[in-house]
Design a protein that fits this description.
11-stranded mixed beta sheet, 561 residues, alpha+beta, 20 strands, single chain, 34% helix
């Protein structure tokens, strides 16, 4: 492939890439805003049975395609009124169903649903638009179905002078006293969920803790912003053998996940910016499994080891539930490898250091927009030698453009002869025809890694920059940044050599317009990076071009007509 075709292929490949991004944005599903949860309690004396009262647990690891069976027996039934338990901390607003003690609603007061709304972001809900809940249960000898708990009260709030809040639900099951305790810490999205058992019978009983995340196939409400490519929506598992394994909902529906016994680990459901995860004790053996429930929801789950409670003995079983943003520093404190749910894609080994550097800069200046500016400067300084090499090559070709055009006119349609003479000319003038391409190609992985890093970082969600840019994760509302980006690309083209092929020259002239159009929908944080990168590149390229043009040794052997 000759240089001309290669130079044409590169922008076309980038253009095709942007077309795919825009196609996903234009025709991808936009999630409706979740409605406020509504729950119907039974009238006094009325019995109520939920269709998903049983926790489905496979008896043993299963082969692909095998469907695990439910826990035996009929669901337990709760009588009387059934008010949901409201729990509020500084970072969580929850509703707990006393029938089973499941978290059926979770809002995050420190994260708004939209930039111009005071409504908190709703992560878990069980409404007409979306069903996504965190379930936990106890498999206990002599009892089937869910346990109907009695709360001490139906409303809990962490006061300003409290750093810890505990919510206890109590029940008695066949002579075994059961306390289900939710423990909250100030500033933490991690909740300790534990069962405390007191065996008042004369026989030993066995019990195990079960944690499930059940979600339907509704779209991601946090992905309804103009970010181009869609983030991953699905389940993920971690084990000592596989630190981070994605299992999409289609695989769960088709029974393609092989249940397995692992030491420690965790199970999670991921969406853009937020994650929900069950983290069992890391020193115990756990069964990880996936299934669907009676409502056809996707269930990512684990079951802990069986524990035997002796007569008059006690036991404590439980796990940690994380419900919150994908902030790496938070996730690292909850479980090993949970930070991998901040998925920077296949270029994670580049994106992770870039995010670390961005976070360090932000800790100094306190503004994510300016942090991106300074990160761009640092990246540009690191890439400076490569960029300089590319710009020197382009500057020499720009200065020697008239001679290359003369060779084209001299040999006309004899492409073989023209190619031979052109190669001699390159050798004589010490020009590498790929010198302007390869250094730029080397920098492309950095740009793609930056794209995914900025796309996945919840820190940029609703983060202001200055003036009219109040959300770095959203597009520029007035399209000023994309227009500046297009203008900077046009200035760069003025410094580049004119392609000898007229058609190629026309395509190159159109690229700033095409890129501007697609960048209209890119997040402002990414456009800031591109604009700053272009401005620094223009300054560097201008200095190098002027230096080459004023160098009398370049092109001294050029022929004249």
């Amino acid at each position: 492939m000759d240089v001309k075709r290669l130079l044409l292929l590169i922008p076309l490949a980038v253009l095709a890439y942007l077309l795919v991004i825009q196609w996903n944005q234009d025709y991808g599903q936009v999630a409706p805003e979740p409605e406020a949860p509504t729950f119907t309690a039974p009238a006094p004396g009325e019995e109520r049975v939920d269709p998903d009262d049983d926790l489905a647990v496979p008896a043993a690891p299963r082969a692909e395609g095998e469907v695990p069976g439910d826990m035996p027996g009929e669901p337990a039934r709760a009588t009387g009124t059934r008010d949901l338990i409201a729990v509020a901390t500084d970072v969580l607003d929850l509703r707990i169903d006393p029938q089973g003690g499941d978290i059926v609603y979770a809002a995050l007061p420190q994260h708004r649903m939209t930039l111009d709304s005071d409504r908190p972001y709703v992560l878990l809900s069980d409404s007409e638009t979306r069903s996504y809940v965190a379930r936990s249960g106890l498999q206990l000898d002599g009892h089937s179905g869910r346990i109907g708990f009695t709360p001490e009260r139906t409303s809990y709030r962490m006061s300003d002078d409290e750093n810890r809040l505990e919510v206890d639900l109590t029940a008695e099951v066949n002579g075994v006293d059961v306390i289900k305790r939710f423990s909250f810490e100030r500033g933490s999205y991690a909740v300790d969920v534990h069962y405390y058992l007191a065996n008042n019978t004369e026989e030993p009983v066995t019990a195990r803790f079960i944690g499930q995340l059940a979600r339907d196939n509704s779209s991601d409400p946090s992905a309804g912003v103009a970010l181009g490519m869609s983030s991953y929506l699905g389940a993920a598992y971690s084990s000592p053998e596989d630190r981070y394994e994605k299992v999409d909902f289609d695989d769960i529906q088709r029974g393609r996940f092989n249940n397995r016994d692992v030491q420690g680990g965790w199970v999670a459901i991921l969406q853009h910016y937020f994650v929900t995860a069950w983290v069992p004790p890391q020193n115990q053996q756990n069964l990880q499994y996936a299934t669907t429930d009676s409502r056809d929801r996707n269930v990512a789950a684990f079951a802990g080891s069986m524990s035997t409670v002796a007569p008059d003995g006690e036991a404590r079983l439980g796990a940690t539930l994380y419900m919150g943003p994908k902030v790496q520093s938070y996730l690292e404190q909850v479980a090993p490898n949970l930070r991998l749910t901040v998925d920077f894609g296949w270029l994670w080994f580049i994106a992770n250091p870039l995010f670390w550097l961005l976070d360090q800069i932000h800790s100094l200046i306190g503004n994510w927009g300016w942090s991106i500016v300074f990160l761009t400067i640092v990246v540009k300084l690191v890439m400076w030698p490569l960029s300089a090499k590319a710009y020197k090559s382009m500057a020499r070709m720009r200065k020697l453009g008239p001679e290359m055009q003369r060779l084209k006119e001299q040999y006309g349609d004899d492409r073989q002869k023209m190619s031979q003479e052109m190669m001699k000319f390159y050798q004589k003038e010490k020009i590498n025809p790929l010198g302007g391409c390869l250094p730029i190609l080397v920098q492309m992985p950095v740009f793609i890694a930056l794209y995914w890093m900025l796309l996945e970082s919840v820190e940029l969600r609703h983060a202001p920059f200055m003036f009219w840019i109040q959300d770095l994760s959203m597009r520029d509302p007035f399209f000023i940044l994309p227009i500046l980006m297009g203008a900077s690309m046009f200035v760069q083209q003025m410094l580049n050599p004119t392609p000898p092929d007229p058609m190629q020259a026309k395509i190159m002239k159109m690229l700033p317009i095409v890129f501007t159009f697609f960048f209209l929908w890119f997040p402002a944080g990414l456009v800031i990076y591109w604009v700053v990168n272009n401005l620094i590149s223009i300054a560097q390229q201008y200095v190098i071009t002027r230096k080459i043009e004023n160098d009398p040794t370049v092109g001294k052997g050029m022929k004249t007509k």
